[in-house]
Amino acid sequence: MASPAPPGHAHCPASLSLLARRRRAAAANQQRRRQAGGRSRREVVVVAAARAMEDVCAKFVSQKVSKARWRPLPAAALQPPDIFATGSWDNEDNRISIWSVGDLGSVGLNGEYQGEPQLLCDIRHSGDVMDMQFLDQERVVVASSTGNVTIFRHHQNNQTLSTNQRWEKAHYHVDRSASCGGAACTGVICNNPEVVTVGEDGRINLLRADQKDAVRTIDNADSSTLHAVTFLRTTEILTVNSIGQLKIWDLRQQRNEPSQIFSLTGDRVPLHCVDRHPNQQHIVATGGQDGMLSIWDIRQGTMPVSLLNAHEAEMWEVHFHPSNPDHLFTCSEDGSLWHWDTSTSVAEKPSFLHQGGRSTTYFSHNTINQSLVSAWLSNDPTKDRMEITNLIPNQTLSVNSLDILGPCLVYGTDAEAIYVNRHLFA
Amino acid sequence: MEELDAEPPLMVVPGVDSAARQLCFEWGPAEMLVCETLFGGRGGCRRAAVGRPLGDRWAGSALPCPGQCGRPAGRGPPAPTRFLAGAGEGRPSSSCVFVVRKDQDIYVQTLRKLFNESHGIFIGLQRSEEEFAGKSRKTQLVQVSKNYRSVIRACMEDMHQAAVSARDPALHSQYSTQVSILSAMELIWNLCEILFVEAAVAGPLLLRLLDWVRLHVCDVDNMVREVLSSENPSKHELFWNVVDIFVLQGRMDEARHLLSKEASANPTSVNMCRILDDLMKKMPVPSLGNTQTLTEMELKWQHWHEECQRYLQDGTFASNSHMESICKILLGDENAILEKKELMTTWYHFLVTRLLYSHPTVKPMELRFYAQSSMDLFLGGESSPEPLDTILMAAFEFEMHQVIKECSIALSNWWFVAHLTDLLDHCKLLQSHNLYFGSNMREFLLLEYASGLFSHYSLWQLGVDYFDHCPEYGRVYLELHIERIPLNTEQKALKVLRICEQRQMHEQVRSICKIMAMKALRNNRLGSALSWSIRAKDAAFATLISDRFLKDYCEKGCFSDLDLIDNLGPSMLLSDRLTFLGKYREFHRLYGEKRFSEAAKLLLMLMTAHIAPCSFWMTLLTDALPLLEQKEVIFSAEQTYELMRCLEDLTAGKSDKQKFQDDDVETMKVEMLRLALARNLARVIVKEGTLEGS
């Protein structure tokens, strides 16, 4: 048990964690990355089986889930989130649904949550749900494959959903008036009251929740498909596209050109998702078609700081933990959901070995983290370690979406199930 | 199973007047189109038998060798519910096209949970292959079987909830039907689990069968609750019924508990109750472990049996008919048990009770005799056996193939037979059996099930994994089906592509990319179109799109989609035209950055290395004009000669006739070029001469 481990592996209790090697993107060798990643992946799956079973409750919902989002908490709230929304895709009849994961009364004796998610209400949605974001506590913005962008309002007193605002064919191909002229809206991001949408038509729309007409539209913003969008600052947005580019757009400028373009080297692998570090805005994470996680420092260079070989297929979503950004979550078409933990590389924690491979406290690092170079950008080989856990044992079909808030994780899959884990850091 | 199946029964498509008109049809992989036709009004077949053989036909025409007819599970529609005729509103006119689908159950919302959840178990089972050996392998398979059953049960509960909350009576009855189908499925599966998967041996076999009966005859619990909640349970009219049921199901402790109530309420029968209680307590039961041998058990049983016999003969229970009949049941008296027919409701309950009290150490292979006679006794010639009875009987007879065949005919979905057969196959029980067409039965049924999934708008993703585990024809089926999935968004296309790429289905990858590229092109999204054709490595299409880009450039004088063209990278080499596009754009960039000599070199190279299409040479030469007119000399003498040669090649290549047709602009351009070239040559000779001289 207490046999001395080689110094480099002090944080690696057998098969419970792995060291993800990082290197400069330019020097990265694809072949070698694959091998390293392939080996570690198998170990990770073993970790997951024992761990994920305990706290996760699943519900089969008879529709393929494309998006799952926690309802944001009021500013002063202390309790964990309990309401989330899901959207479906590839059904003849797609729906937006609001779910509750129960009140505190149903928490079992040992603090474990027993019940499964309960459907509160749902509403029909035309077309596949491509993206979904809560605008505020009550309203959720939904992007559709028909090109429509709709705001639904959740009436909490009588548990119903209604359409609050709709932009018909906000995204469209050549002819907007044609019956099938809409182009899929692939991404939406909100900063109440502003809503930014991107689509397969390479268009960027800036909308306001209370205005029927778009505030601003950038036609032909991208020659390829825009896959996702996020706010960098209040006036700047980030987009990723299908030829491996990350672009920054300054909405104050009237020029219909990006203010900066970053791109992956050479192979033009499409990027599918993007998220920005909640505290350090220059750190951006993207996920690509080959399952690669890229970390970018937008202050310098035009290439990613590090490329981390991760999933075996498209990475559909990447999210920094909103209040504890040393933790990152990614999900993929290959049916896996990974939890990336860099907290150990910042604060050396000798006790870690005895915690069974789990990060114990998840609030304590915030303050430390601020003062140091972020673990995500670190290239120091001695500190260069990261713990990765696959949260899904026996993966089968794609995990399309995940959302993380406080200690709670929700994700939805093509196997028509939603999963909730309310004790992620337990 | 070698016999050929009988004539297919006729299936009437609602709304089609097949007597008046002829029908024509078109087979699809998942559905069939039927319409009325006036073609060839005389003779011929006036009625179309719309059987089930969609899969057959398609397999026969598209696959190399499977037989055209015959299937393990009987031909023709097993139940009318397996068909769904859409668009059936039509009058008998030839303007209607009817869509006939093969598998209606696929479309039941609640059953989607069953399909999805069992998919996970199925995959787990395929992956677990040979992980364990011997005993632990069996434990593992039994666990898998139990998982399947629990999914059925969960689905049944959901369906029950739906039935309860349904206000529409039609919907209610539809749900109720589904509940009863699911419950029958679970009943059959459970029996197969005991007999085939677990293969329980004499002794434990009976205990398992008892559990099976208890699990599926659940009316008793309500009755017990009613009796026990009454003020005076032993006076309740159902009291003895409940005791009987407990005894019939071998639930001795519960029966004794109720008897004690009778004893305390009725002092006169205390003694009788005590004796009966004692008999029940002493009844020997087979043990699950190896603690006693069968002979030991049989000895004990004999002894106990004689004791019961003694009490019955000396009239101990004569004063109480209820207790006397219970004693007779304990003795395995067939008539006494049969008197309780109403309480048992089914012949298989009767069978298990009979075994419990007369042959507790029954061996698996003896089951068939008892089963047959029990059914005959129970039904007593009053009613003929229903499909469920035949299926269970086949199971008791260990006729696995018969079970699967009957199930295929009776049940309205392929889910059950496909998964059960797969499980039995993993138990290595079906190996000896080969069909005289297609592959083996497991594969045949999995293919049928997966094809059904593919016909569904949204469940197709599940089907992929099932095809993957059909070694012989799975891939061909997948290739045929995957091409027919509508691709309405790029994301869906990416998912389908991923499936194809993982399986090295290059043909399908190319076709999907081409479809997407065409769509993008139609929507005027040249950048997207180019990306798709690069992904498909489709050189011809890349050339086509490059030409569009160049044409746009010629018309507008500037490039669109620069972010893409500037970042082509190695993919530029896909087609010559694409290379030219990329290089030509590079020339423009160099020129824009005022790196003239590099630009000039590149421009010349485009022509001399024949990268540029001839039609574009004039444009390139015109592009050279401003370089020739620069203050400093850019083209060397060597390069100028090359340029002149290019110009002469271009003009000489055209016939006289063409020359006449060329408008003045063209002639003027050539003249200007010649002039500029001559001046440049003059300047460069002077310059180079000077440089050499100095």
TrEMBL record, chain A:
Keyword vocabulary terms for this entry: Nucleus, Repeat, WD repeat
WD repeat boundaries on the chain: 264-306, 308-350
SMART domains according to UniProt: WD40 (SM00320)
Key word Cytoplasm present: no
Cellular compartments annotated: Nucleus
Location, primary (coarse class): nucleus
Pfam families documented for this protein: WD40
Alphabetical list of PANTHER family matching this protein: NUCLEOPORIN NUP43 (PTHR22652:SF0)
Name the record gives this protein: Nucleoporin 43
Naturally occurring in which organism (per UniProt): Dromaius novaehollandiae (Emu)
